[in-house]
Amino acid sequence: MNYKPIIIVPGEPNSIFFEIFFKTIKIKKFKNPIILICSKKLLMMQMKKLKFNFKFNLVNKNNPYLNLKKNYINLINVNYNANKAFEKITSRSSKYIEKCFLIALDLIKIGVSNKLLNGPVSKKYFLKKKYLGITEYLTKKSNSKNSVMLIYNKKLSVSPITTHLPIKLVSKKVNKIEIIKKIQLIYKFYNKVLKFSPSIAVTGLNPHCESIHNFNEDLRIIKPSIKALKNKGIKVQGPFPADTVFLKNNRKKFNVIVGMYHDQVLTPLKTLYEYDAINLTLGLPFMRVSPDHGPNEKMLGKNQSNSLSLFKSLEFLDKH
Known about the structure:
The protein starts with 5 loop residues before the first strand and ends with a helix. It contains eleven helices and twelve strands. Helix 1 (about 15-25) links the parallel strand 1 and strand 2. By secondary structure, it is an alpha/beta fold.
């Protein structure tokens, strides 16, 4: 086989994932085979409800290479007692989601693939405050030491040093070690996968990079981190005030803007590009991508969800 299959874990069974997945594969054929790990029963119920019709091919998880079919949905069936096509999101599906992820990680471990795409999960029910997000979940499950979230767009990407963390805890988690490790991972990814050295901007933590307190994180933590990275040959500048670095004439100088917390950089990026961005986890022993949105329970079954982010996610894995 010339191409590694793309392994897909749909995540929360009662989300918009199947809808946007059906829309995506309807408009584009991918060169890499797709292995979907989910409930056959639920897949068929949602396909019928949403009025899509695709052929699927049941695959044995112990021998996935034996009968993959390129133009089919290759399906590893995981039992899930779905009562109807769409239900409210509860903790009932947590064990099912976990089983899907573990099958995917086993397939990656034995070399079936090095590409994983997952749909959104409920942080409230599946992650249960044990993990901040799927980035941290997969980092732990794959025994990886370091990882970083990169929200990727070809024109401009962003990365938060802290992820889904309450704002009152952010300053306690911003330190030189984390900043240096995460920016090194980003720089390595751009050079190794995208084949060029990126220009990176780093924001400050405080408004205008100033603080009324004696301890100013921008001067005591962020600025020395940038100096250390420059000494390693990385093209990085800052710290910049977060309220102006995204202005057109400023952002066009950079490929990546690294911020200190989630909404500091994700809010402006989503304002600029909306669904034209994908979520990558860097630092894992495989390529992990997901569409950059949540389960969107309010849109279940309406067939009105935007599939662009999933399309871009699959397109990225198909290319790299």
